[in-house]
Write a structure and sequence with these properties.
Blueprint (H helix, E strand, L loop, with lengths): L6 H5 L3 H10 L1 H22 L4 H22 L6
Helix pairs in contact: 2-3, 3-4
C-alpha cells in the first residue's frame, strides 16, 4: 500500500518548526502546499497501478518541489 513521503524526515525538521516557518514565509507555505498535492498524486498513481512512466514523472515533479523547498530553507543537510 503506497504511503505519502515523509518530507519532514528528509528535511530533519519537526512539524512545529515547519509550521512556525510557514507562518512567517508565504512562499514556503506555498511550496509545502504544492509538495503535498504532488505527493498525493504520486500515492494515488501508485495505488491505481498507473503506468510506471507516469508514476516516474510524478515522482520527478515531487523531487523538483522538494529541491525548491530545500533551497528556500537553505538546508544543505537535507537529503
Amino acid at each position: 500500500m503506497p504511503v505519502p513521503h515523509n518530507l519532514l524526515a528528509d528535511l530533519k525538521l519537526t512539524q512545529e518548526e515547519v509550521d512556525q516557518r510557514k507562518k512567517d514565509d508565504p512562499r514556503l507555505s506555498s511550496l509545502f502546499d504544492k509538495y503535498k498535492k504532488i505527493d498525493a498524486t504520486v500515492v494515488e498513481a501508485e495505488s491505481n497501478y498507473t503506468h510506471d512512466d507516469v508514476v516516474k514523472k510524478h515522482k520527478e515533479a515531487r523531487l523538483q518541489v522538494k529541491d525548491e523547498i530545500v533551497r528556500h530553507l537553505g538546508n544543505p543537510g537535507a537529503r
